[in-house]
Amino acid sequence: MARFRRIDVFLKMEATGIIPVFYHPDIEVCKGVLQACYQGGIRIFEFTNRDDFAHEVFAELSKYATKNFPEMIMGVGTIMDASTAALYIQLGANFVVSPILHPETAYTCNRRKILWIPGCATLSEISKAEELGAEVVKVFPGEVFKPSFVKALKAPMPWTNVMVTGGVSPTQESIEEWFGAGVSCVGMGSQLFPKEVLQRKDFQFIEDKVKTAIGILQAWRVQHTK
Ligand SMILES: O=C(O)C(=O)C[C@H](O)[C@H](O)COP(=O)(O)O
User: Fold this and answer.
1) 79, CA 20 to 30 Å: which among 35, 99, 107, 119?
2) 140 in a domain, yes or no?
């Protein structure tokens, strides 16, 4: 498995802008999705810890990524406690994402110099996360917040780096409104990986969707870079 410095993980997250958020119990489906994402231009991938044996799938996927796509930075999401974070770090996770703000998870990640991205829903939680060392926070669930929340929070806290996950889709409207509001990156799950597409193992569909989303973001960034 490949280990990346946490500053490089954050910079790659910002540069790629779009982070696939994915879980499937079938390792062959995971490999197909990872390859499609890579070919579509993704260099950072969040595997979510969605059942009791998800770590076994991650262990294999992480090795597969290192061997076939050594630039791909693998991380884990849906981490609720420090011991699960430690398990995934041992298996090759280069960043740890949570739906919640859990200080003990921060201590474990910081000790190992692994990027920790807690889920936050208020400015007080964001501020606490930053005191605990979070370089970037996950505003979650995005479908509840809307982009205006990000814009408003960046007025008093312009230093805050925001990732938003939940309800983001690979469309021009969704990408432009979130990046326009000031996010550093977005996580995308169900919209990039519709169930029926996974059922028919249509990895080309995923690659095309990813390419389109990255193209939209790049075009937006060219227009909006000062
Ligand atoms: O548990 C986590 O760590 C999460 O990030 C939660 C979900 O995976 C995202 O909310 C995906 O949301 P959709 O893109 O709307 O499918």
Assistant:
1) 35
2) yes
CATH no. for residue 183?
3.20.20.70
Pairing assessment for the beta strands 162-165 and 137-139 based on DSSP bridges: parallel
The per-residue pLDDT for range 31-64, each reduced to its tens digit, is: 999 999 999 999 999 999 999 999 999 999 999 9
Mutation probe of ligand 1 site: the residue of 18, 48, 162 with most atoms within 8 A of C-beta: 48
Task: Give the range of the structural domain holding residue 85, as residue numbers without chain letter.
Answer: 6-221
Strand-pair category, 18-22 with 44-48: parallel
Total length of the chain: 226
Does 24 map to a domain?
yes
What confidence tens digit (pLDDT) does each residue in 184-205 have? 999 999 999 999 999 999 999 9
Domain count, the chain: 1
Any domain includes 95: yes
Per-residue tokens: 193: 């990986």
Please indicate whether residue 163, judged by its CB atom, sits closer than 6 Å to ligand 1: no
Does residue 21 contact residue 77 with C-beta atoms inside 8 Å? yes
In a domain? residue 38: yes
